[in-house]
Automatic annotation (TrEMBL):
It comes from Thermoclostridium caenicola. InterPro entries: AB_hydrolase_1 (IPR000073), AB_hydrolase_fold (IPR029058), AB_hydrolase_sf (IPR050266). Pfam families: Abhydrolase_6 (PF12697). This is Pimeloyl-ACP methyl ester carboxylesterase. Residues 16-240 form the AB hydrolase-1 domain. SUPFAM superfamilies: alpha/beta-Hydrolases.
Length: 261
């Protein structure tokens, strides 16, 4: 079974692939699809999520391979611009580490590449016991707020939460918490913008520094005041940063950005 893919914009324009975070789906990129309407926008629902809910999430590498297969069916051998958030950002890292020749440029947002070692077994056990909460409306509303999901999207978010199976949920969480920066990431020659918010977890912010130091083609910034969900919380700012980066327009004038070296 192939991943579900939504295509918008100008099919003859440069191809941009947006990879969503865990627990949501491709709809989180609606404001980006609208902004980049002069581009060929390709938005997959990742394994286990949204309209790809029936496809098992097996591993980061398997999910990255499925994304590339689905994209290749659309664009052939054309290189693409990759944009990924959280889980989707980790998948961008995986693709750059294994198949950089497929990518023109990349934007990696809120991707953790420092494994959670201490207490991971306990956390997974806790997640197993609390999985049923994702099906409770009040908990779903609280979680949506923490991800900056607009009220207009809550019902869609809740419907997708109901599609997420226990096995896929645990596989995603295990993959997310255990993901480490591949050694081959250093070999990628793809220009990459690496971002995180100043209000995000320490491991997420430290991961920006890890990627910048591992690969000289990475440019890293922390976004002042931003939490985990910048494309939803401040789509105008995020869209401007992505546009400027892929069009070689300098970002340093933005007062909200702090360079990571």
């Amino acid at each position: 079974m192939d991943l579900y893919i939504r295509r918008t914009g100008e099919y003859r324009g440069p191809s941009m692939v947006f990879l969503h975070g865990g627990g949501v789906a491709g709809w989180m990129w609606d404001r980006q699809a609208e902004f980049f309407r002069d581009y060929h926008v390709i938005i997959p629902d990742l394994p286990g999520h949204g309209r790809s809910a029936d496809i098992p999430f097996i591993s980061m590498n398997d999910a990255a391979s499925k994304v590339l297969t689905a994209v290749r069916d659309v664009v052939g051998t054309e290189k693409v611009i990759l944009v990924g958030f959280s889980l989707g950002g980790q998948l961008v890292v995986e693709i750059l580490s294994r198949w950089p020749e497929k990518v023109e440029a990349a934007v990696i947002l809120s991707a953790m590449v420092r494994p959670v070692n201490t207490g991971r077994t306990f956390l997974i056990s806790l997640l197993k016991k609390s999985f049923g909460l994702v099906r409770v409306e009040w908990f779903s509303k609280w979680q949506a707020k923490s991800l900056y999901i607009p009220d207009a999207y809550w019902e869609q978010y809740y419907r997708d939460s109901l599609k997420l199976t226990r096995d896929n949920f645990l596989s995603v969480m295990e993959a997310n918490m255990s993901y480490a920066l591949p050694e081959t990431f250093a070999n990628s020659n793809v220009p990459a913008l690496v971002l995180a918010g100043t209000k995000e977890r320490g491991k997420v912010k430290a991961s920006v520094r890890d990627m910048v130091r591992a690969n000289r083609n990475c440019t890293g910034y922390l976004v002042a005041g931003a939490g985990h969900g910048l494309p939803l919380a401040d789509p105008d700012l995020f869209n401007e940063m992505v546009y400027n980066f892929i069009n070689n327009i300098r970002l340093h004038k933005n007062a909200k950005l702090k360079r990571v070296v």
